[in-house]
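Subject: Sanity check before I submit

Could someone independently write out the structure tokens for this chain? I want to compare against mine line by line before I put it in a report. The sequence has 87 residues.
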Amino acid sequence: MESLGNKWKRIPVAVRKPLVFIVGSTVVITGIAMLVLPGPGWAAIFLGFAILATEFTLAEKVRDWLVDELKKIIARAGRAWRKLIKK
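---
Independent answer below. Compare away.
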């Protein structure tokens, strides 16, 4: 039985890349809108860049940068939390 990934890679690049671009960009734009509207904006932005990163190197770099920044924010919040608890 052929896996979904193998089937996806058999789709011609001329069809696959525009499809990924349209879906990924739509998810990113929707996520940006959800930053001011109700909804999980940042989660959608991360998901959109994850979709785009399957076919585009630049999107993979942006996704990696976003993940690194998120890790820094989480570490900073953890330090602030520990400092707050010690008081």
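---
OP: Matches mine. For the report I'm noting this point. Helices lie at 4-10, 13-33, 41-53, 57-86.
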